[in-house]
Amino acid sequence: MANYREMWEQLGMDLENHDNLCAVLPTAFGDVYLSQENRPESMDFWDMVVADIHGIRPAELIEEQKKGRKVFGTFCVYVPDEVVIAADGIVTGLCGGSQFWVPDGEAVLPKSTCPLIKASVGARLGKTCPFFRIADMYVGETTCDGKKKAWEILGKDVPMYVMDMPQMKRAKDVTKWMEEVEDFAAVVEKTTGKTITPEKLAESIHIINEKRKALARVYETRKADVIPISGKDALLMMQIAFFDDPERCAQMANRLADELEQRVKDGVSVFPAGTKRILVTGTPMAIPNWKLHHIIETSGGAVVCEETCTGTRYFENLVDETGTTLEEQYRAIAERYMGIHCACFTPNTERVDDILRLAKEYKVDGVIDVNLKFCCLYDTEGYVVEKALKEAGIPVLGIETDYTDADAEQLRTRIEAFIEMLG
Predict the structure, then answer these.
(1) Which secondary structure element, helix H or strand E, spans residue 327, and what is its range?
(2) Which domain holds residue 225?
(3) In this predicted model, what pLDDT tens digit does every residue of 242-299 receive, in sequence order?
(4) Sheet of 137-141: strands edge to edge?
(5) Phi then psi for 342, rounded to 5 degrees?
(6) What is the DSSP letter of 129?
(7) For the chain, percent helix, then strand, then coil, each to nearest 5?
(8) What's the Cα-to-Cα distance from 82 to each of 226, 284, 363, rounded to whole Å?
(9) Residue 267 region, left (φ>0) first, then alpha (ψ -120 to 50), else beta?
(10) Beta strands at 160-163 and 137-141: parallel, antiparallel or unpaired
(11) Domain count, the chain
């Protein structure tokens, strides 16, 4: 493993606290991931990335910055990567998924704020995550009230641009979002000093579509009766997808998909026959939040699909590539991203439709609806989701949790009982 200490010091990081974080992660990763048997060989790429997660990619980003490229840090699947890439910019995800960052977030945010927001703010203010130090600009969005206030705090510390997310999905709302995409493009052009042309935007749309197709190929294999990859490994792939170079991400996901497709043909499963198939739905699970998947998959279940932002919402549906003018391309981008069914919308019947569809496609035995504490959007929508699943005859378990391990044994008891109830 290379020594990145000088790089971290130049980024102004709190090295002492960062050492504490680095000391914990390998053990956690080993317990959750390396303890698995019969893992796909292609997971070696993601294992390598996690082993040096604060070194390899951050060093790449800094080298690109030296060439004049700008790095945009994002927190949500609604921010269109295509626009940044068309201006020769780089996108990196910034959502925090560790309890380690929460206390620094609570120094400026109410404790009743969701852990994802607290961790994301804490990772910046606590100076313990290089990605938060490297990004030239943060791009937020108005998907929830907690985020809107968090952007105001982060905006005092780093350049921040906020996209105004519509709350409904009428035709005029899609048009509004297209205007937001166009406004964002102007900001990106000004920040990078590069002009977005139809040719460059067409190329970036194709790059991100290919990434989505590759991730979708991996998920397609999880529909098979033979389960060729654990939910934990699929989740790790998705989490890293938010940070990685999109073309490399597509290459590695396609490599993994090749192996998984062969496993399905050969009848190679990572779970014993009869293991109950679980769909996880609800709030996103930012790296390194592996708690729920680990509990499910060490309690007799197998996670075969995630209807989350770190799951199908991230890659389903492509941007139409037929547009030849910027207006047509921005419209196509807006329509694709407005097809993501987040709980921030009202009404949001499409998300319920998605969950029922995915439950059928992935042949699940039960659904676990997970909500991060204090996320009132998904918590409130949980009533509608669970009602629809029960009416469809699909067993469902609602769970509220955070990033701590304080509730791990309680969750395990409930999940074991749920899986046992599935027969």
Answers:
(1) helix 326-337
(2) 5-421
(3) 999 999 999 999 999 999 999 999 999 999 999 999 999 999 999 999 999 999 999 9
(4) 90-93, 71-74, 137-141, 160-163
(5) -85, 155
(6) -
(7) 55, 10, 35
(8) 35, 21, 33
(9) left
(10) parallel
(11) 1
